[in-house]
């Protein structure tokens, strides 16, 4: 799924199961030694996906992917990347910084958000858009897709800025016809040189999931394939 919504410069790897051959380096193991089984499995397969994706851009010797401030994965110096996992799906995407500035991916089940969550993560205009889209195209859970798009924005934003970004800081607009979305950082968000105020992403549904991805260009600071 991810390959369909990421530009060719980005290497990705996804899996719908937890492969038996997925293992951790001792330094990674130390990060989850007190975690419950579900967390251990998603973390371990996420690292497995990361190593598979890294191999596709030339990092064929497996290496640990540790955890930085606020949980962001620590990639090799010349790499940016992103990891996601949800029930029945784990994935990673990586790109050389010589190719792109940042990448963010997120997967969620194509199911309604729990009660009250849409109101917590969506601005009033987004809530109206989601309700209209749910009426017009109910096969896509647009509430969950909105949540996923915002998670992808954060995963693209944080490694570049090292600053928090709240759900009410960006407004999303979906194009239901072509699998794209645009996002605009609102004026109260302190601008970051590394990050444009308007970016674009792609989305896809399938296998009971909604998946979103953002790839940020190095040169212009704009999104790849953005059309913005
Ligand atoms: C961190 C966060 C984005 C994770 O998203 P999620 O949908 O809960 O979970 P996912 O499985 O898709 O992603 C988890 C992975 O995100 C990555 N991640 C965690 N913190 C991160 C950060 N600060 N920056 C980049 N990636 C991060 C990690 O790789 C993590 O997996 P791991 O712990 O196994 O390494 C989310 O929990 C969060 O804190 N959101 C609040 C901020 C936000 O979304 N703002 C909206 C701005 S518009």
From TrEMBL:
Q: Which organism is it from?
A: Streptomyces leeuwenhoekii
Q: Which InterPro entries match?
A: 4-PPantetheinyl_Trfase_dom, 4-PPantetheinyl_Trfase_dom_sf, 4PPT_N, Enbac_synth_compD-like
Q: What is this protein called?
A: 4'-phosphopantetheinyl transferase
Family annotation (PANTHER family): ENTEROBACTIN SYNTHASE COMPONENT D
Please give the Pfam families that the UniProt record associates with this protein: 4PPT_N, ACPS
Q: Which residues form the 4'-phosphopantetheinyl transferase domain?
A: 102-189
Q: Reply yes or no: does the keyword Transferase apply.
A: yes
4'-phosphopantetheinyl transferase N-terminal domain location? 27-94
Q: Which UniProt keywords apply?
A: Transferase
Q: What molecular functions are annotated in GO for this chain?
A: transferase activity
